Amino acid sequence: MNLADNLEDLRARFEDALKNSAGASSLDAVRVAFLGRSGEVTAVRRSIGKLPPAERPAAGQRINEAVEQMERALNEAQANAQALEVGASLSQRIDVTFPSIKPQQGSIHPMKRVMHDVCAYFERHGFAVVVGPEIEPDYYNFDALNIPPDHPAREGFDSFFLTPNLLLRPHTSPMQIRTMQQHRPPVAVVVPGTCYRRDAVDARHLFQFNQCEGLLIDEGVHMGHLKGMLTGMCREIFGSEQQVRFRPSYFPFTEPSAEVDTTCPLCRGAGGECRMCGGSGWIELGGAGMVHPNVLRNVEYDPDVYSGWAFGFGVERMALVRYDVDDIRRFFENDHAFLEQLA
Ligand code: PHE
Fold first, then answer.
1. Which atom of ligand 1 is nearest to the CA of 170?
2. Angle at CA 19, nearest 5°, toward 18 and 25?
3. Which of 191, 210, 253 to mutate to test the pocket of ligand 1 (most atoms within 8 A of CB)?
4. What are the Cα distances from residue 136, in Å, to 33, 54, 131, 196?
5. E-assigned strands of 61-165?
6. Ligand 1 pocket member 314 (CB < 6 A)
7. Where are the domains of the chain?
8. Is the dihedral of CA 227, 229, 230, 236 positive or negative?
9. Atom 8, ligand 1: residue with shortest CA distance
10. pLDDT by residue, tens only, the chain of 343 residues
11. Which of 79, 88, 91 is CA-nearest to residue 24?
């Protein structure tokens, strides 16, 4: 046999051996038998010596090419065999139908989400978000807001006093005063923040809660602007089916004043024995109104030139409505099962 036939024969037997070998270890045996130091290829290489010198380089090159091909085929077969073996061993140990362990994942608290969305709505309309202290002197909580010391409205804000003159703010309205003291009109701010009241806790009341305050002061601002902005906000937060109503009310720092109600999330307006809304079918979100001229005077704004509106809404109240929750206390219990449902 000449060299070419020899190589052809070798390759055929190599391919057979490859086909018939099962698993990485028998592939190793094929490698030794063909490519090993005393394997078949070495024997063929030796036969080069019998060729006339002129033919030897070309013959050597043909052998090298054949060896390269065989090595490539072997490596590929070995990689395949390895992958198969790994797969087989895994499928014995891993039952992919077994329920997995859910990864722990945090999420934004529903109250914070509402707070964020309220701020985002007003920011989009050109308002700035500002925050203020939770401990305030009497002056910012009451006096500057047109509630003098003997005013009965003080009782409505059952406050936690730290000293005779310092208290945990019962509302975010002090920031109306601080903002107007710092800026000349026009002013447009929204104030998210925590407030405190000595309220008895029930399905609608907490002693620690959050408000979003809004304040707009400029020339020619009227109640229609207030209604439009608040209705727009409620639509955005609750969806367009939710009803909003403005009910005449009283606050010393606004005139006229309104309380803003929305359809009760529990009875959906049916009323009856509903423990959420007490049967009215409505739930109060907060107060609003046109900033009282006395308040404007207190910050040296001229009430003959400027007018404005303000509102203060309970954020947990809004979250109650948005997420169809039956009790405001759930927002403070930090029960994971509850929070995960709303995540
Ligand atoms: N500060 C009032 C409250 O907490 C709400 C309010 C804010 C009313 C602004 C009118 C204007 O009850």
1. 4
2. 50
3. 253
4. 91, 105, 13, 12
5. 128-129, 135-137
6. no
7. 3-91, 110-342
8. positive
9. 287
10. 577 788 888 888 898 988 888 777 788 888 898 988 888 888 888 888 888 888 889 888 989 998 999 999 999 988 888 888 888 887 777 778 888 888 888 889 999 999 999 999 999 999 999 999 999 999 999 999 999 988 888 888 899 999 999 999 999 999 999 999 999 999 999 999 999 999 899 888 899 999 999 999 999 999 999 999 999 999 999 988 788 999 999 999 999 999 999 988 788 889 898 888 889 999 999 999 999 999 999 999 999 999 999 999 999 999 999 998 988 999 999 898 999 888 8
11. 79
Sign of CA dihedral 73, 74, 78, 81: positive
Report angle CA 122, 306, 285 to the nearest 5 degrees.
40
Answer yes or no: is the C-beta of 171 below 6 A from any ligand 1 atom.
Answer: yes
Residue 209: what are its φ and ψ, rounded to 5°?
-150, 180
Say if pTM beats, i.e. exceeds, 0.85.
Answer: no
Smallest CA separation from ligand 1 atom 10, residue: 288
| Cβ neighbour number for residue 123 with a 10 Å cutoff | 13
* Span from the CA of 287 to the centroid of ligand 1 (angstroms): 5
Q: Are 194 and 172 in contact (CB under 8 A)?
A: no
**95 Cα: distance to centroid of ligand 1 (angstroms):** 59
Q: CATH number of the domain at 110-342, please?
A: 3.30.930.10
